[in-house]
Amino acid sequence: MNPFSNPAYRVHRAPDLPVPVDEPQPEPQPVHPHHPNVPVPQDDPVPDHNPSAPRAMLRL
User: Fold this and answer.
1) Where is the composition biased (Pro residues) (predicted)?
2) Containing H/E element for 57?
3) Measured between alpha carbons, how far is 31 from 36 in angstroms, rounded to an integer?
């Protein structure tokens, strides 16, 4: 007897997966005019250090 012919195995089928939605493409970054493969440095919205921190903390 084939175990897969048992109706009990058919009810435990995995649910259908949802249809994937295309992700929006990221905005193209500007390129350097002389080196097209190097991205142009962008303004960093988050500074690298805290300017109000004491100088002793910056020397870690």
Assistant:
1) 17-44
2) helix 55-58
3) 5
Dump the DSSP string for 22-54: PPPPPPPPPB-SS-TTSBPPPPPSS-SS-TTS-
Cβ atoms of 59 and 52 within 8 Å: the answer is no
DSSP state of 59: T
Q: Could you report the per-residue pLDDT of 5-46, keeping only the tens digit for each?
A: 666 665 656 777 777 777 777 777 666 667 667 666 666 666
